Amino acid sequence: MAQFSFQYAAKFLCISNIPGTSQTTTSVVPGSYQTVVNIHNPHYETIDYRMKLALGDTNISKFVPGRLRPDGMTRVTCNRILREFFGGPDDVDFIHGTEGFLVIESTHSLDVVAVYTAVGEGGRVQSIDVETVKERCLELPAGGGCHGENAVNFEAEAPGPRPNPWEISDFSFSLTHPANQANVFVETIATHTGLNCGELLDIKLGTPVNSVQMRLVHHSEPAWYVATSNGAPVAPAQQMVNPPGVPEMVTIVGANIDAVQIRSPENEVLLLCFAAG
What we know:
This protein has 2 domains: 6-137, Hypothetical Protein Tm1070, Chain: A, CATH 2.60.290; 150-276, Jelly Rolls. Helix content is 3%, strand content 55%. The chain has 1 helix and 21 strands. The chain has one helix at residues 78-86; strands at 6-17, 31-40, 47-54, 64-68, 73-76, 98-106, 111-119, 125-132, 135-137, 150-153, 160-163, 166-168, 171-177, 183-189, 192-196, 200-218, 224-229, 232-233, 238-239, 248-263, 269-276.
C-alpha cells in the first residue's frame, strides 16, 4: 500500500453571490468565484495521490485516487469537483455552489498551485490570484513507511555502536567517510532514533531489486541520496526536501538497484528505516 506522506489543503471557492436571486451567500461579496488547483509531479517516477473534500466539521468526502506520470500534471476545476465528488456531468456549472478545502495527499512531494478568479457585473474577470499551496509532512508512526520482504527498522534498535560494516538481513551498511571507522552508530537526536549516516553511508544489497524505500530525517543540512546499479546511477541524485526534524519518506525506482549512497553535509542525518521491494 502506498504511503501518503505529504498533504496539501487548498482552499477552494466554487460559488456565486447574486443579490435578489437564489444564489446568495454571506460567505463572499457579490460576484462569481472560481478555483483551479494545479498539481504537478516533478519526479522521475510515477506517483500516487488521492483527494477529498472537507466542507465542514463532519461533511468530509471519501478519497478519490489518482496517479501522475513523471513530469505530469492535472487540474482540479470546479466542474471536476462537481463531477468527481457530487456525481455531476462535465459541462454543468454549480448552481448554488460550494466552498471548503480540497485535501490532497501524495506519496511524494508535489507542486500544488491554486488559481482564484472573481467575476463581477458584465461577466468579466475583475481579479485573479495565484497561490502556492503549503506542503505538510504527515508524521508516520515509529518504523512506519518501510515495507517489503527485507525491511530494517532502526527506530526499534537500542542506541550504541555496531560493527562497520553492519550486516543486517540482505543489506550491508558501511560508514565510508570519515574513513577507517570501526563502528557505525545508532543514535538518538532530538526525538528520533536511527542509524547515523556520518558524512557518507554506503548501503549494499545482496540481491538487486527494482525499488528501495528509506525514511530519513536531518537536523541540520539535508542529505543527498542516489541508488546505483553496477556503479551507475539509476536516476539523478536527489536532495531531501523536508525541514530539519521532519522525517521524509523516500522511494527510489530503477532496474537492478544493488547499492544506495547517502551523503550528508553534516553529521546529523539519521536513517530511520530501509527496505527493498
